[in-house]
Design goal:
Rossmann fold; about 350 residues; binds aspartic acid; 8-stranded mixed β-sheet; 4-stranded parallel β-sheet; alpha/beta
């Protein structure tokens, strides 16, 4: 088995400068020296570092295109891919790649670490070695166990577009609140086949043009019309993730309805996403969500903000002005991102 490890940056790629004590990205040789086990097993691993290595807070849609192209260009030479990435935006990148890579029949596993590879107590080795093992795992027919974009962190493998960073301190940094994990790694790696998407055996295709004219608007008690108006009148705005309360509720003020309706009438897609970690939007369940329905706001059901935002970037990048099609696709699951 051959696995390509793509190093994009993040804490996992960092080592401490012995003189200054500061953390900085390691070069590939230094990185290799910290994880010799990676290159001393049956699985053959090649490493491809991006230049420059970046902190994932600096990630842009162009970096996602670069990742998608890297996988596409090396697809036939490798059995699976591991993307080493900073944890801060890993869930956004994994979500974006899930929409950009079509007909995947090999795993693309994102991972990273909370402590740098060069620190004694680091979780880097464990995450990296298990991610590689998962990327190389095949069933009795020789097919990949997880032909999906996924994210491995501290014992659990999540569907990429269902994951969210939940913790800045502890090693269990990610969660998939609305979908069970795809595999659990203990003494053995326990894959949950019935939850994993099965490959269709079609040729891999990529879509690399994303439209980032999006906004996330979080409702809070006391939010003013001026704030809502300012967001919705952003030049070139195409889509809005509207983060609401509970089952998709928002204040029933007439001005909020007017602002939302006016934006929807101007062709902006507004999708309702609950601020709760777990559960789903159910517009119409409470009176306070009726105005959203009437204004033409769509339901994001149980999708994450990361997945909804990148799905809109993908749909507007791909289908441009065909708003009817975009709205229709926003309400169905394309790659297992919602129920
Ligand atoms: N700021 C870092 C990054 O996202 C944090 C990490 O990797 O854990 O690149």
């Amino acid at each position: 088995m051959k696995i390509l490890v793509v190093l994009t940056g993040g804490t996992i790629s960092m080592v401490r400068n012995p003189k200054s004590g500061a953390l900085h990205p390691a070069d590939t040789e230094t990185f290799r020296a910290f994880v010799p086990e990676l290159f001393a097993q049956d699985i053959k691993v090649d490493m491809l570092p991006f230049t420059p290595l970046i902190d994932s807070s600096d990630i842009k849609p162009e970096d996602w295109s670069k990742m998608a192209h890297t996988i596409y260009e090396h697809y036939d030479q490798y059995d699976g891919f591991v993307i080493l990435h900073g944890t801060d935006t890993m869930a956004y990148s994994a979500s974006a790649l899930s929409f950009m890579l079509h007909n995947l029949s090999k795993p693309v596993v994102f991972t990273g670490s909370q402590l740098p590879v060069g620190v004694l107590r680091s979780d880097a080795k464990e995450n990296l070695l298990t991610a590689v093992e998962i990327a190389a795992a095949v069933n009795e027919k020789g097919r990949s166990m997880v032909p999906e974009v996924c994210l491995f962190f501290k014992e659990k493998l999540y569907r990429g577009n269902r994951s969210t960073k939940k913790n800045a301190e502890y090693f269990e940094a990610f969660e998939s609140f609305n979908y069970p994990c795809l595999a659990k790694a203990g003494v053995h790696i326990d894959f949950r086949d019935s939850l994993i998407h099965q490959a269709d055996n079609l040729p891999l295709e990529i879509w690399d043009k994303l439209d980032s004219n999006m906004a996330v608007l979080k409702i809070f008690p006391g939010i003013t019309r001026a704030v809502v108006h300012a967001v919705l009148s952003t030049p070139n705005l195409k889509g809005v993730v509207l983060e609401t309360y509970g089952a998709g509720n928002a204040p029933s003020f007439e001005w909020l309805y007017e602002e939302l309706k006016e934006a929807v009438d101007r062709g902006i897609a507004i999708v309702n996403k609950t601020q709760c970690e777990t559960g789903s939007v159910e517009m119409g369940r409470y009176e306070v969500s009726m105005n959203l329905l009437k204004a033409g706001v769509l339901s994001g059901r149980d999708i994450t903000t990361e997945a909804l935002l990148t799905k809109m970037m993908y749909l507007f990048g791909r289908y441009g002005d065909d708003l009817k099609k975009i709205k229709q696709m926003l309400q169905v699951s394309l790659v297992g991102e919602m129920d």
